[in-house]
Write a structure and sequence with these properties.
By secondary structure, this protein is of the alpha/beta class. It is built from 15 helices and 10 strands. The chain starts with a helix and ends in a 7-residue tail after the last helix.
């Protein structure tokens, strides 16, 4: 029997199966359960969540609150991709009735992106439980902030069930958003990679005059989470936070290619099996681009030549070549600058293919909104060199770290 177990274990490990993953932290939802939902008692509760809102046994927060005898869950609120996660990026989400619970589901990614007075009627408290990915352009934090503003206007308390930042709590990269470029993909004046949990960020927004009006806010802290943790170290299972963030590595590399991806000029793996982990095009020679990028010796990063044929989106059905981005030392790697170095080396190898000379100009506004400024695009386009924007990209990092530290809930 022992020999059979060892063979099965060996086969399981070879197939990437984990038989006994020890969970090292308790999310805000787990802590709320331990407290027997006391802060929700006697309140009419609304819930803003999606498929990532699960406990350590992978049970949905919707079902947990709906079944709790001392919780009166009255409505659900849907962010981008919907409560059940079946909407594509940018899809218009409709108000519906949730078939599992019979509760009304109000869309915050359809006709409106902030709760209307009608949606807030009959609610005393609104719970937020969504797994974020630690990047400013991911829209869940925009929804969180807009909900906080609406809650303040209607005297509704907000409870954030905190979850890990899959990028950890130490990385901060990118400039702040300028007034002209505040949008749903850059709703607040925070760095592109902001190094806070959603609970910490909510406290920051609420107390640093980032909202039109501050709300009554309560954060249910996690237990056991450390700022230095990557997601795998938490022991938690990963639930796709959107259709193209299927694994923790997708969240890690989203800030490494997502800004470039807004131009639709090259494939960044969306439409292939490794979204956000590569850059490829029909006219790129994989080995040449990989060699150029590896000669830069970017700390903690390696580029591997790849040949792909995207299933959909940019390059559908075409033979593309490019590079896959491999993070070799996460602590030392600077994620957000990777795409700019790729743009730089594309221009060096293919001067007639420099990104801003050939990308669809109709996409420049979205690029600027995600970047937080038009300076990034305009300054980079002059010489196609990251060095020309590096100081701008990082100049607000240390001031933001100092400003945000007082809202840290974890060491």
């Amino acid at each position: 029997m022992k020999k059979i177990y060892l063979v099965l274990l060996t086969l399981g490990l070879a197939c990437g199966v984990t038989y006994a993953q020890k969970i090292k932290i308790r999310t805000g939802l787990e802590v709320l359960k331990e407290q027997n939902f006391k802060i929700l008692e006697g309140k009419r509760v609304g819930l803003l969540t999606n498929p990532t809102g699960v406990d350590n046994q992978l049970k949905s927060v919707i079902d947990i609150l709906h079944e709790a005898p001392n919780v009166n869950l009255v409505s659900l609120f849907a962010p981008e991709h919907g409560v059940r996660g079946d909407g594509h990026a940018g899809d218009h989400i409709e108000d519906i009735t949730d078939p599992q619970t019979g509760l009304p589901v109000y869309s915050l990614h359809g006709k409106t992106r902030r709760p209307t007075p009608e949606m807030m009627q009959g609610i005393d408290l609104l719970v937020y439980d969504i797994q974020d990915i630690g990047c400013r352009s991911f829209t869940y934090i925009s929804t969180m902030g807009l909900v906080m503003e609406a809650a303040a206007e209607h005297d509704v308390e907000v409870v954030i069930l905190d979850r890990p930042n899959p990028l950890g709590g130490l990385k901060v990269e990118g400039g702040l958003v300028e007034d002209e470029y505040i949008s749903f993909v850059s709703q607040f004046k925070i760095p592109y990679v902001y190094g806070m949990t959603c609970g910490e960020l909510a406290l920051f927004l609420n107390n640093e005059n980032m909202l039109s009006k501050s709300c009554k806010l309560h954060v249910v802290k996690m237990k056991g989470w450390k700022r230095k943790m990557n997601y795998e170290e938490t022991g938690l299972q990963w639930i796709p936070s959107s259709p193209h963030i299927p694994q923790p590595i997708s969240a890690v590399l989203y800030p490494a290619s997502g800004i470039l991806g807004e131009l639709g000029y090259v494939s960044i793996g969306v439409g292939y099996t490794i979204p956000f982990q590569l850059v490829a095009a029909e006219w790129i020679q994989a080995d040449n681009l990989a060699n150029n990028l590896n000669r830069l010796r970017l700390t903690g990063v390696h580029f591997r030549p790849v040949h792909i044929k995207p299933f959909y989106s940019v390059g559908q059905g075409k033979p593309y070549q490019g590079v896959q981005i491999h993070i070799m030392n996460y602590q030392k790697a600077r994620l957000s600058e990777i795409q700019f170095y790729i743009m730089q080396e594309i221009a060096a190898l293919y001067p007639d293919r420099a990104v801003f000379d050939h990308a669809n100009k109709d996409r420049f506004r979205m690029f600027d909104q995600v970047s937080g400024s038009n300076y990034v695009r305009e300054a980079f386009a002059k010489n196609n060199r990251f060095a020309d924007i590096k100081d701008f990209w990082y100049k607000e990092v240390e001031p933001f770290k100092q400003r945000s530290k007082k809202y840290y809930l974890y060491k």
